[in-house]
Design a protein that fits this description.
Helix content is 0%, strand content 46%. It is mostly beta strands and 196 residues long.
């Protein structure tokens, strides 16, 4: 039903993507979701939001864990509509250059959560001929790779010859008291197969 809130009442395992076709809120409620999708699952994603749909993910208890248990997924979040992430802890072992967040002609907002990318995929990736908006207001991002390079080992974030057309990302880093520590504009990049 449109506008429904689904609250997890126990830990669960999913073998296919959680597809959202309307406006819905998922409250992880401190529970865990283990994704065991196989290579037969075409989407190879945990949360998928279709065009004209909206997904809000929150964790009212603050201890939820969503993990890629199979190590065969491309994405944790694939968004073609509107997606808002308020909390939860997410771990992904993306394959084939996958990403924690993948957005196509859509709006995505991250207000909180803890995100760990264990392999050489991207934390954020976009595609499509339309307009993508990714807004990050909060959250913790752990050991992620940008352009296939471990961000902990690359102070510039992108490969030296990288390029992304029509993309402008400004950022502000604040300390725990909320004071601005550093701000700037991120540089664009290009992957081997196409601009990103």
């Amino acid at each position: 039903k449109e506008g429904t809130t689904v609250t997890l009442t126990g830990d669960t395992t999913v073998s296919a993507s959680i597809d959202v076709t309307k406006t819905i809120t998922i409250d992880l409620n401190g529970k865990s979701i283990t994704a065991t999708a196989t290579t037969d699952n075409v989407k190879r994603v945990v949360f998928y939001t279709e065009a004209d749909a909206e997904l809000i993910i929150k964790d009212s208890e603050g201890s939820a864990v969503v993990a890629d248990g199979a190590g065969v997924l491309h994405y944790m979040f694939r968004n073609e509509g509107t997606m808002v992430i308020e909390g939860g802890k997410y771990t992904l072992s993306a394959v084939d250059g996958g990403a924690m967040f993948f957005s196509t002609n859509s709006n995505m907002t991250v207000n909180g959560g803890n995100f760990t990318q264990l392999t050489t995929g991207w934390m954020f990736n976009t595609a499509g001929n339309g307009f993508n908006v990714i807004t990050v207001n909060g959250g913790t991002f752990n050991r992620f790779f940008i352009g296939g390079v471990d961000a902990n080992e690359n102070p510039y974030g992108f490969p030296v010859d990288g390029w992304v057309p029509y993309l402008s990302i400004d950022f502000v880093i604040k300390d725990l008291s909320g004071e601005e520590v550093y701000s700037g504009s991120m540089m664009p990049m290009a992957a081997t197969g196409a601009p990103r």
